[in-house]
């Protein structure tokens, strides 16, 4: 096998990484595992390199906002950061078979009701204070289809049913209006209340500058609860605990900037970016031995914490006009310093063989769980920081 230099259209001679290729591809050994490796002849073939930056391949980028339902998240978020606000819908099952008869006889009085939430995550100005309001919701909502676009049409009361709060500890507590909680109990146990239990909307107050995550309904030991102290006629005070059964959070805010110098990704909102590289310069019959994508993080503009999930994944764009991509089939990225790398060998092989290339989407792996913001350098960034696709391929003489 011969190793050749490749002269690109710009007239610049690019010298491949000869040492790397000798180590990995020497003699086209059986250890080559990339797409098409079994078709590479040990003789009369050559390895070449196509580099999106050095060879100035045509490329484009897009940043867009997805509409996602976050009801499958293991936590729910509430807060404000910058121009973004995060709300949560939360519903509790207010039923206990032991007091149904007493509820029907109107012999139960709610003395106090305390909502308890377990804080497990926060991002933004984490040392600042946190507060929120709770509003009675007047209509049915589905946690698996409700999204940020649904929020503006939601019917809820403007009054805040929280009377006092303690938000300084891991266990965050809110005192709720006893009459509202009683009506929810009455509806769930007797179906005669004038207030249907559709739960509450948690709204972050203005002026805060962080987002807090609480354990959601999937956590049995630390799920949200309402602790009710009640009095039964002729008896003494007693306590019941009601668990949350549904939660879903949603983030609202302006459309993301389309600055070509950056690519923006953000969990929760959810901002996603896509990249397209035109690989038509690859000659007919070329076998793709290796293709790697490099992306550089701008840590000064990103919003991350020491506990953030920093993983990014890649997926094939299915329709670039509609900003849709294939879900559930991802290529992972590895991170060294501020540089992310992904193996796109199979992606490029498909683009070249089938002549179908809609590009790739870059997605935070914690897309529905957190609120991390990743700012990556874009195609208009300096050459040493912009996205780079490096392709090593074989041709036959």
> Average pLDDT, to the nearest integer?
87
Largest sheet at a glance?
11 strands, mixed
What structural class should be given to the helix and strand makeup? mainly beta
How many domains is the backbone divided into? Answer: 2
> How would you spell out the order of helices and strands?
EEEHEEEEHEEHEEHEEEEEEEEEEEHEEE
Shape: elongated
Low-confidence stretches: 1-42
Helical content stands at 10-25%
Share of residues in strands: 35-45%
Distance between the termini: 10 Å
Provide a descriptive summary of the structure in words.
It contains 5 helices and 25 strands. It has 397 residues and is mainly beta. The longest helix has 13 residues. Strands 1, 4, 5, 17, 18, 19, 20, 21, 22, 23 and 25 form an 11-stranded mixed beta sheet that branches. Strands 6-7-15-14-8-13 form a 6-stranded antiparallel β-barrel. A two-stranded antiparallel ribbon has the order 2-3. Strand 14 and strand 15 form a beta hairpin. The N and C termini lie close together (10 Å). The protein folds into 2 domains: 192 residues, no CATH class; 178 residues, no CATH class.
List keywords for this structure.
single chain, 397 residues, mainly beta, eleven-stranded mixed beta sheet, six-stranded antiparallel beta barrel, 25 strands, elongated, disordered N terminus
């Amino acid at each position: 096998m011969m190793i050749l230099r490749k002269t690109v259209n710009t007239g610049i001679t690019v010298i491949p990484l000869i040492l790397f290729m000798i180590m990995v591809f020497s003699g086209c050994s059986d250890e080559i595992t990339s797409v098409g490796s079994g078709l590479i002849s040990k003789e009369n073939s050559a390895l070449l390199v196509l580099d999106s930056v050095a060879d100035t391949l045509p490329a484009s980028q897009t940043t867009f906002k997805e509409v996602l339902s976050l009801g499958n998240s293991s936590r729910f978020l509430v807060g404000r950061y910058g121009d973004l606000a995060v709300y949560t819908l939360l519903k509790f099952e207010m039923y206990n078979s032991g007091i149904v008869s007493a509820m029907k006889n109107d012999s139960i009085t709610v003395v106090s009701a305390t909502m308890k939430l377990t804080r497990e995550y926060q991002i933004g100005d984490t040392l600042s204070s946190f507060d929120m309001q709770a509003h009675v919701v007047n209509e049915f909502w589905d946690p698996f289809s409700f999204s940020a676009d649904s929020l503006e049409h939601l019917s809820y009361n403007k009054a805040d049913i929280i009377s006092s709060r303690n938000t300084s500890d891991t266990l965050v507590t809110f005192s709720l209006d006893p009459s509202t909680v009683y009506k929810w109990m009455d509806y769930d146990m007797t179906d005669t209340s004038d207030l249907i239990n559709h739960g509450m909307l948690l709204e972050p107050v203005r002026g805060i500058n962080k987002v807090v995550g609480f354990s959601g309904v999937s956590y049995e030991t630390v799920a949200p609860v309402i602790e009710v102290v009640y009095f039964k006629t002729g008896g003494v005070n007693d306590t019941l605990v009601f668990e949350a059964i549904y939660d879903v959070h949603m983030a609202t805010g302006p459309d993301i900037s389309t600055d070509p110098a950056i690519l923006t990704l953000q969990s929760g909102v959810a901002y996603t970016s896509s990249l397209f590289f035109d690989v038509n310069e690859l000659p007919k019959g070329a076998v793709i031995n290796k293709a790697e994508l490099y992306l550089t993080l701008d840590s000064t503009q990103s919003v991350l914490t020491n506990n953030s999930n920093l993983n990014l994944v890649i997926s094939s764009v299915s329709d670039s006009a509609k900003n849709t991509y294939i879900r559930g089939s991802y290529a992972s990225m590895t991170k060294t310093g501020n540089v992310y790398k992904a193996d796109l060998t199979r992606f490029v092989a498909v683009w070249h063989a089938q002549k179908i290339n809609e590009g790739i989407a870059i997605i935070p792996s914690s897309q529905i769980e957190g609120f991390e913001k990743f700012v990556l350098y874009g195609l208009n960034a300096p050459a040493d920081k912009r996205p780079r696709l490096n392709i090593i391929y074989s041709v036959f003489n």
